[in-house]
Design a protein that fits this description.
By secondary structure, this protein is α+β, with helices and mostly antiparallel strands. 54% of the residues lie in helices and 13% in strands. It is built from nine helices and eleven strands. The strands form four sheets. A four-stranded mixed sheet has the order 1-2-3-4. The protein has a three-stranded antiparallel sheet with strand order 5-6-7. It has a two-stranded antiparallel sheet with strand order 8-11. α6 (242-267) packs antiparallel against α7 (270-289). The two termini are 34 Å apart. It comes from Thermogemmata fonticola.
Length: 384
């Protein structure tokens, strides 16, 4: 409970990965539902709010995180668990200590969102509509332009009226400004108008597309720990070294945090303010902590525990350390302890599997056990 980033509730296991949901994810979802339900501008049904923020968002974020999981496995790594939290989620992955593996692992999440967007867009196109690529549009109104008749169709929350396709006429009462022109009439013929309502299944497909598209664009922002920041770090690392990549990604995070802070103040948005503060903190942590303690095991947004390489220099202290230095060293000590405990558990499990092979043969291993042994072998080669 000392690390706030580990405050998660276990849900289930899928594809050999433990799924947890962060307490903040639940709090933010509840807050978003209440904010939109109590808004005076437009009333949204509770069922739609719960399905959108509570169910659909969960599924889209989970798909994003499994993109990281499968990407990590494609480069010889694996994942232990996925934590879903307000900014999406983060997969605790174990990948080889090289920039390519880290870049592929970081790109897996946005790639999963891109594939999902492509599939949904093709279905929407087949139904006769253009996908709405505007990330600032209202997903509950769900404006979709038809390429068949040029009309913009919406959900029942939208108000789009068009003349009847068959040109039908109807009698309607005089409007106040028309009474002087048609004083001899109480009713006048008018062209019948009708609302352009999109089918419900198309509306919800659009909402899934919207969330996946928004998550894709958001995670491409070059600010750590977003995927864009991690990809930037890996790219610079491939052309220099890890510390330089961490520094550049950290400075990029400072810039993006400043832009989000300006935007939050300009539009009076508390969520953007919290996001900007988080970006500042993570940028500072990455730029100034990572060179000293790279690869924090657990939920420190590092790349995985094949990066457990600490430069332990026991230099004598000539002055009393500040409370901040003592807190940071204690935090790093807890991280190292967790890493050592995990390594000990992995070594014990490897011994059990080797004993199983000696007794029953390699064919007795499950697929997950084979991947575990391959991962341990790769780790030993990297650390040798």
């Amino acid at each position: 409970m000392r690390e706030p980033l580990t405050w998660g509730l276990p849900l289930f296991r899928l594809f050999g990965v433990r799924i947890k949901i962060h307490v903040l994810f639940l709090l933010v979802v509840i807050g978003l539902i209440l904010r939109m339900a109590l808004a005076e501008t437009q009333a949204i049904a509770w069922t739609d709010l719960v399905l959108f923020w509570g169910v659909l968002l969960f599924v889209i974020v989970l798909i994003h995180e499994y993109g990281h999981v499968f990407a990590a496995r494609s480069v010889g790594g694996d994942a232990r668990e996925v934590m879903l939290w307000p900014l999406g989620g983060f997969a605790s992955v174990d990948v080889p200590w090289n920039p390519r593996a880290h870049l592929v692992s970081a790109a897996g999440g946005p790639l999963a969102n891109a594939i999902l967007c492509l599939v949904i867009a093709l279905v929407i196109l087949a139904a006769g509509y253009w996908p709405n690529l505007d990330p600032f549009s209202n997903p509950f109104v769900a404006e979709l332009k038809s390429y068949r008749d040029g009309r913009i169709y919406t959900s029942h929350y939208g108000l789009r009226f068009y003349p009847s396709e068959n040109g039908a006429m109807e009698e309607s009462p005089l409007r106040p400004w028309e009474r002087g022109m048609f004083h001899d009439f109480e009713m006048v013929p008018r062209v019948k108008m009708e609302r352009a309502i999109a089918p419900t299944w198309i509306v919800w497909l659009h909402r899934a597309f919207y969330l996946s598209w928004l998550l894709l664009l958001f995670n491409l922002i070059p600010a750590y720990p977003l995927d864009g920041g991690r990809m930037l770090q890996s790219f610079v690392w491939s052309r220099s070294d890890y510390e330089q990549g961490a520094t550049i990604a950290g400075y990029s995070g400072f810039v993006m945090g400043g832009l989000f802070l300006i935007l939050a103040i300009a539009i009076n948005e508390s969520l953007l303010l919290a996001l900007s503060i988080f970006m500042f903190f993570e940028a500072w942590r990455l730029a100034y902590w990572e060179p000293e303690a790279r690869g924090a095991f657990g939920y420190d947004f590092s790349a995985g525990y094949t990066s457990l390489r600490f430069d332990e220099e026991n230099e004598p202290q000539t002055v009393r350390k500040s409370w901040w230095q003592r807190w940071r060293e204690a935090r790093q000590a807890r991280q190292r302890k967790r890493e050592q405990e995990q390594l000990a558990r992995d070594e014990a499990r490897m011994d059990e599997l080797l004993d199983k092979i000696a007794r029953c043969g390699k064919e007795a291993l499950t697929e997950e056990e084979r991947r575990f042994l391959e991962r341990m072998s790769a780790r030993k080669r990297n650390m040798s």
